[in-house]
Amino acid sequence: MRLKTSSGVAAVIAAAALLATAACVSEEPASSSSDSALSGTGTGADCTIDETVKLGAVFSLTEAAAFAGGYQQEGLKMAIDELNAAGGIKYELILEDDKTSVDDSVAAFEKLIERDKVSAIVGPTLSGMAFTTYTDAQYAGVPALGVSTTAEGIPEIGDYIFRASLPEEVALAASIPAAKETLGLEKVAVLYDSADEFTASAFNTISDVLKEQDIEIVVEESFETADTEFSAQLTKVADADVDAVILSALPGATVPLVKQARDQGITAPIVGGNAFNSPVLVGLLEGASEGLIVGGAWSAAAETTGNAEFIANYNELYGRAPDQFAAQAYTAGYLLDQAVRADCDANREAIKDNLGQILEYDSILGPISIDEGGEVTQEPFVQIIRDGEFTIL
Amino acid sequence: MLAGYDTLITNIALAVILAYSFHVVLMAGQLNLGQAGFASLAAYTSTLVVPTEPLFGSLSPVLVGIPVGAAVGGAAAFLVGLPVLRLRGVFLAIGTIAFGEMVRVFMTNAEWTRGALGLRVDKWLTVDLAWIVVAVLGYLFWRLGPSRTGRAFAAVREDELAAGSMGVDVVRTRMTSFVASGAIAGVYGVMFLYFFGRITPATFDFSLTLGGLVTAVLGGYLVFFGPVLGAGFLTAVPEIQNALGVEAGWIHPLITGLLLLAVILFLPGGLSTLVARLRPARVRPDPGTEPDGLAPLPEPGTPIAELRGLGKSYGSVQAVRSVDLEIRAGEVLGVIGPNGAGKTTLVNMISGLETPSAGEGEVLGVRLGAPSHRFAKAGLSRTFQHSKLFDRLSALDNVLVGTHPVTRSTYLRRLLWLPSARRDERRALALAWAQLRRVGLADRAHLRPGALSYGDQRRLEIARALAAHPTLLVLDEPAAGMNHVEAGELAALIKDLAEDGIAVLFIEHNVKMVLDTCTRLVVLNFGEVIAAGEPREVAADPKVVEAYLGAEDEESEHV
C-alpha cells in the first residue's frame, strides 16, 4: 500500500502511457479467411461438404420479444433437422438468446463470430438490435440473414446483410388496396406505435398508399410500444365513424388495443400487418379478432410449395400451430442451404455472394428472391379472420 | 487470448462503472436513483459535441466524450441536488426516480433526439479504454477510503446528526457524493453510447437504475472494489450456467435471482464480506507519536460562550425559556434538572442541532442558529444522551472521524501520493490513538461499537469528541448506565480534562458525580434556570429541592 513517491510517479507515467495507447482506435478491416474444408464437391442437390457447417442464430427467447423468438427458434431448428436428414451437408445450429436486450445481442453476435466461427447468422428478432449487431457482422465479414427485422434501412447496413422478412410497409401496402376492394373504404383512422422503428416507418408507407388509393385519413393517433391504455386515442376513432382502422403495432400493444376498440363499440374492420399474423394473437383476442384484415409474409391458408407439410410437421413436433415467425425462420434455413449449395461452398464469402443471387426460390412463403442489396421480394398474403380462421381475402 | 470475449468483458466494465455511480452515494448513505437520468443527459449531450472522426488521426473520440459526460452528469446532479437533497431515505429515492423519468420523457418527445427511435453513432469505445476508466475509478475510490473525505462520507452514512456534530459539513458531503454519482453516471452513459453505437430514451430506463443498484449492493459498498465484485458475479453466473449446459430461458434468471437472494441474506455487507472474512481488516497501528500542531486552548477564565434570553418552543410547549448563561474556559459546568426540564434542548441549541426560537447567543464566536459543523470547527465537541456512534466503523475509525475539525482534507493529496498527506493522516491517527488511550480503550480499537459494553460505548463517544481537540466539551448524561466504579473513573477523567484547560458542560443525574466534579452548577426546571452558582450551595437551595421532590420521588433520592 505504501509506495515510495518515486515508484508512485513511475506508476503514474506507466498508467498515462497505457492510456495513450489504449485510447487509439484501429481501422483495419476484418481479414476474410476461407477454409477449404468448408468447400465441397458436386453442385446443388448433389453437393457434399465433409466439414460440419456451423450456422448461428440469435433470437429473443426471453423477455419482451419472446413471443416471436420462440417460434423462430422452433422453425429454424425444424428446417436444419430436415436439411441434415436430406444429407450431403451437415449443419450445426448454435442458438443464442439475446434476452431482448442490445447488450446481450451484441455479445451473442460476438460469440458466434469470434468464438464459434459460424458461416452465417440468422436473426436477431428485433430491428432495434439488428442496427447494432449487423454493423458488427458487416465489419467482421459474416453474412447475416434477418427473418423478422423489417425496419427501413436494414439491408443498407452493408453487403453482408440480408433479410427474408417482408417489410411491414409492403405487407400493409398490399392489405389496404385489398381491403378497399372488398370493403369499399373511403375514410379511415390510422393508429401507430411511434416508438418502434418498423411500425413508425410503416406509418409513412400507410399514408402514401392511402393517398394513392384516394382514402381519407380522418383520425391519426400514435402511442408507444409499452402502452396498455388506449382510450384517449380510441375515443377519437369512435367519434369519427370511420370505415376501417389501420393499425401498425407490435403484438404487445395489438391485443389490448383491439380489445379496447371492440369494447368501446368500434365495429369498423381493423387492418393490420405482420403483428396480426399469429394464431396466438387470434387466441388472445378471442371474439375480438373477428373481421381483422391481415397483410403478412405467410398464410396458413396459402397453397404454397410444402406449406401443408410444414404446418403438419410443426404441429406434430411442437404441439402447436406455426405462425409467420416460425415460417420465416424455417424458410431462412432453406435459403442459407440454397446459398451454400449454389457453389457447394460454406465459407462466409461464398454464402454472402450466393445469398444475394437467390431468385424465385419456391418456399412455403411462395416464390421468394433476395437481391444483391440484401432486400427480399415476395408477394404478401392478405387474409381476413372469419370464424377464428385465417382466410385468404 | 481474449479474442471473442470483447463484448462480455466490456459489458462487465460498463456494469462496474454504473455500479460505482451507486457506490459513491451509498457510501454516504444517500439513496440516489436518478443515475439513468444523468446517464441519458450525458449520452445525448455527448452526441452533440463528440467529433465523428478520430482525434489526431488515431485517438478515440470517446476521450472527448468522457469528460463531457462527467461534466454534464455532475452539473445536472448539482442542479437536481439543490432541491432534491432536502429529502432523505425513501423520499430522496422517489424524488430522484422522478427525475430519471422526466429525462426519459423529455428525450422521447424532443426532436433532436429522434424521439423513441434513438440515435446512432460510430462505435469508438475499445475494451482497453473501458477498463482503464474502471481502473481510474477503482484508484479514486481506493484512495478515498482512508482519507478525511472518505471518513466524512462514512460518518454521514452512519449518523448525520453525529457527523455534523463532529464537524462534518453534512450538506456539502451529501452534495459531493451526489455530484460524483451524477458524473460517474454521465461517464457510463457516454461509454454505453460509444460501445453499442445506439441509444434510445428507453435505454436509460428504471431497469438500468435497478441493475446498477443491485450490482453495487451485491458487491458491497463498504470496500472500494465492491462494484467490481458485484459486476463480476452478475456476469459470471449466467456464463457459468451456459458453460454447464443449463438450458437458456426462465431458469437463468431464476438461478441468478436465487443466488442474489442468498448473498443478500447471508452476506449483508455484500460479496465483499467474504473478502473481509478471509482477511480481517487491519487496524492501523498507533504511530506512537504525540499529536502536534494543535492550537493552544484559551486561558482559563476567558468567556467562551454567552447566551442571552435563550428560548425554544415547540408549538405551545416552551422547552426552554429566557436562559442567560456564560461559560468560561477551564470550568466544569453541570446542568441538572428533572426529566423534561429542557437540559438536552439547551445543549442542542448550544451545539447547533436546534435553532433557538427566542434570544441570542454566541458560542466560540459562532452565533447560535448556525449549522452544527460550524460549532464543531470552532472547537465545540459533544456526546449524546443516547450514544450516536458510527455502528459500522471500528472504534478507532469512530475516533478518527472526531479529528475532522483539526485536520486538513487529504484526499486530493493522497491521489498524488504527496508525503504531506501521509503526514497529516499519521497526525490524525496519533490524535485518535491518544484519545483512545486516554479513555482506556486502546486494546479495543479494532472492535465495532456494537461489540463494546455500554460503559465502553460512552467512553468511546467521549474519546471521539476529544479527538476534535475541543475548547468546550458538552457531555449529555455521560454516566447514564455506568456502574459507580465506571462513573468514578469518568469523574476523574473530567477533572483531568478541566485541568488541561478544556471547558466541560455536562448534563447529569448522578448528583454525587456532579458535586464532585463541577465548579459551577445550573439547575433547570420547566425550561427556566431556577438556581445557579457554587454546586453545594445550589444543591441546598430549597427551590431546587422542591423542584426535584415535586417532580418525581425517584429523582429525589439523588439530591
Brief descriptors of the model:
heterodimer; A: 393 residues; alpha/beta; Rossmann fold; seven-stranded mixed β-sheet; five-stranded parallel β-sheet; 12 helices; 15 strands; 18% strand; disordered N terminus; B: 559 residues; six-stranded mixed β-sheet; four-stranded antiparallel β-sheet; 23 helices; 12% strand; elongated; disordered C terminus; transmembrane (chain B); ATP hydrolysis activity (chain B); ATP-binding (chain B); LivM-like (chain B)
Q: What would you say this structure looks like, in words?
A:
The complex is a heterodimer of chains A (393) and B (559). Chain A is of the alpha/beta class. Chain A has two domains: 38-166 and 304-379, Response regulator (Rossmann fold, 3-Layer(aba) Sandwich), CATH 3.40.50; 169-296, Rossmann fold (3-Layer(aba) Sandwich). Chain A has helices spanning 5-22, 66-86, 102-115, 127-140, 168-183, 197-212, 231-240, 251-263, 279-285, 307-318, 324-343, 348-355; strands at residues 53-59, 91-97, 120-122, 144-146, 161-163, 187-193, 216-223, 244-248, 270-272, 293-296, 361-363, 366-370, 376-377, 381-386, 389-392. Chain A has a seven-stranded mixed β-sheet with strand order 7-6-8-9-10-14-15, with helices on both faces. A five-stranded parallel β-sheet of chain A has the order 2-1-3-4-5, with helices on both faces. In chain A, α9 (279-285) links the parallel β9 and β10 (293-296). The longest helix of chain A is centred in the first third of the chain and has 21 residues, at 66-86. The model of chain B is unreliable at 551-559 (pLDDT under 50). Chain B starts with 5 loop residues before the first helix and ends with a helix. Chain B has a six-stranded mixed β-sheet, sandwiched between helices. The chains are: A alpha/beta (393), B alpha/beta (559). At the A-B interface, α1, α3 and α4 of A face α1 and α5 of B. Chain A: Keywords: Signal. Chain A: It comes from Glycomyces paridis. Chain A: Residues 1-22 form the signal peptide. Chain A: This is ABC transporter substrate-binding protein.
